[in-house]
Amino acid sequence: SITRSSDSSVKEVLHLANMIRFITENQLSEAKTLRYAGLISHVSQKNGLNPLEIIAIIVAESNFKETSINKETGDYGLGQINWEHWGKDFGLMPHELLDPSINIFLTCHIYEFFGKDFGKYHRGNGIQCKAYLVNVKSILSTLNAFTELNKQNI
């Protein structure tokens, strides 16, 4: 059911929006920043995931470019969801993966599905997998440092 948001969920969305603004160097509109933060907050909470990890994955995949399409691999949107492996199974057309709510939902679903082996998704076991994981972890470290810095400045 849709109910009035609690103060804590509003604060969480605002916190995530600050993270997205920081990591994208204020390149997104305020409306998109808040929308993405709200979607990430709610889907992460529903799936028991760390929303900062989802932000880090989206930065690594598309840098928050919702219309991003990799024609070579068939990956779409914010989380670069592969239509052949994921979108088709959900009965979606490729262009539907560009919808931020669908894309963030599937990004969280895929992350939860792969768990600790997330880097293996389309990257195998070699150097690309390791480099991808290092990239996501470094983005996550940056987000965590930003959080700590903001706590100290309050």
Give a written overview of the molecule.
This protein has 154 residues and is mainly alpha-helical. Helix content is 60%, strand content 4%. It contains six helices and three strands. It has helices spanning 7-23, 30-47, 51-62, 83-87, 100-114, 127-152, and strands spanning 69-70, 75-76, 81-82. It has a three-stranded antiparallel β-sheet.
Structure summary:
This protein is mainly α and 154 residues long.
Core attributes:
mainly alpha, 4% strand, 154 residues
Radius of gyration: 15 Å
DSSP helix fraction = 55-70%
Spatial strand sequence of the major β-sheet: 1-2-3
Shape: globular
Strand content: under 5%
Distance between the first and last residues' Cα: 35 Å
Instruction: Give the rounded overall mean pLDDT.
Output: 90
Number of strands: 3
Helix-strand pattern, N to C? HHHEEEHHH
Instruction: List the uncertain runs.
Output: none
- Number of helical elements: 6
The secondary-structure class comes to mainly alpha
Q: Major sheet: size, sense and barrel closure?
A: 3 strands, antiparallel
